[in-house]
Amino acid sequence: MGEALLQIDNLTLEFGRGTSALRALDRVSLSVAPGEVVCLVGESGSGKSVTALSIARLLPTPPANYRSGRILLEGQDTLKMTPSQLRTIRGGKVSYVFQEPGMSLNPVLTVGYQIKESLKLHQPASATNNEVARLLKLVGISSPETRIRNYPHEISGGMQQRAMIAMALASRPKLLIADEPTTALDATIQAQIIGLLRDLQRDLGMAILLITHNLGIVSDFADRVAVMYSGQIVETSNARDLLRHPLHPYTRALLDSVPKLGAQANRLTAIPGTIPRIGEPPPGCRFHPRCAISIPECSREPPAIDEVLANRSVRCPRWLRDSRARQPQSTDPL
Q1: Which residues pair with 306 in a beta bridge?
Q2: Which of 8, 114, 176, 181 lies 20 to 30 Å (CA to CA) from residue 208?
Q3: Regions of the chain where pLDDT drops below 70
């Protein structure tokens, strides 16, 4: 994919300091190339949103404490940037679309006013009603000249999310970070929003980091996938290979829990247990208490993440102990 637009290297982040510090991210490494779509997937509480917010340092410090690592955006380390430098990249080089747009939009300002504020900050020469209307039309909102005057409560949840995407695109970012952009939307609107992001990525050539727990999105949207569990990346792969041959037991469990059309089953397959509380990971592999194929070795030393197949990495003792790294049995759940 060429030189990385975003490169996160061994990022470790804690909340608090000293003996009371809670480690939320543990040596996280992730990259996004120009024009690439990367999905970061995992259960709620796995660290996906913390990773996303860390990129532009949107987490307040304190309580957040970046212990080690680098976050390179076009070669510049955001962890070393001054507040004024950060303001230029926030909404400039990198823009965010957050979940639950009704909570993100200001209820006392019109949609058009809020989009124009973003334009004034990053593209002042384009801060006109015509440009706002063009952006609203770009994201599929009909009668944009009228919608400019609407307040958030006067439009639907799907339109609110489209307006949020228009606001994110106002600065013409190189990287769009979409954090669970379809949360609280019905299935039809979810499909429309994902389709819109796919079309915009293709037409504008921007990179997208999509945060999601829905592996159904991955199959026809992502170029690469990173699977996260308990503050660590446990598997990375191109999307096609991951869906057909998941390497990590957690990835396989996530795929098995996806409902399948036509499947003859009385109930959905669930992952037993719960994700560890932040700052309280189990010894060894963090997934082993919930893993159906764990071995004694899994509870001993924390496994490293290694490349076991071409362009595929996994953090699993069962794989790391086998130098041949045999391919698991094929599954095609989607």
Answers
A1: 314
A2: 114
A3: 1-2, 184-185, 261-266, 320-334
Residue 139 CA to residue 136 CA, distance in Å, equals 5
What is the C-alpha R_g of the chain? Answer: 21
| Pairwise CA distance, residues 186 & 172, whole Å | 28
pLDDT for position 333: 42
At 263 the three-state DSSP class reads coil
Q: Which two tokens stand for residue 283?
A: 């010894």
Phi, psi of 116 (to 5 degrees): -65, -35
Dihedral in degrees, nearest 10, Cα atoms 87, 89, 91, 96? -120
Long-range contact list for 10-13, CB < 8 A, 24+ apart? Answer: 10/68, 10/69, 10/70, 11/51, 11/54, 11/66, 11/68, 11/69, 11/70, 11/71, 12/66, 12/67, 12/68, 12/69, 13/50, 13/54, 13/59, 13/64, 13/65, 13/66, 13/67
Distance CA 194, CA 188 (A): 10
Separation CA 15–CA 206 (nearest Å): 32
pLDDT in tens, 132-169: 998 898 888 888 888 899 999 998 888 888 888 888 88
pLDDT of residue 320: 64
C-alpha 54/C-alpha 12 separation (Å) is 10
Nearest partner of 285 among 309, 316, 308, judged by Cα? 316
What are the b/e assignments for 303-317, b being 16+ CB within 10 Å? bebeebeeebbbbbb
For domain 1-93+173-189+201-259+270-334, the CATH superfamily is: P-loop containing nucleotide triphosphate hydrolases (3.40.50.300)
Count CB neighbours of 3 within 10 A: 10
Main-chain phi, psi angles of 115, to 5 degrees = -70, -40
Q: Backbone dihedral region of 258: left (phi > 0), alpha (psi from -120 to 50 degrees) or beta?
A: beta
Q: Are 274 and 311 in contact (CB under 8 A)?
A: no
Q: Specify whether the CB–CB gap between 238 and 311 falls below 8 A.
A: yes
Q: Report domain extents, the chain.
A: 1-93+173-189+201-259+270-334, 108-172
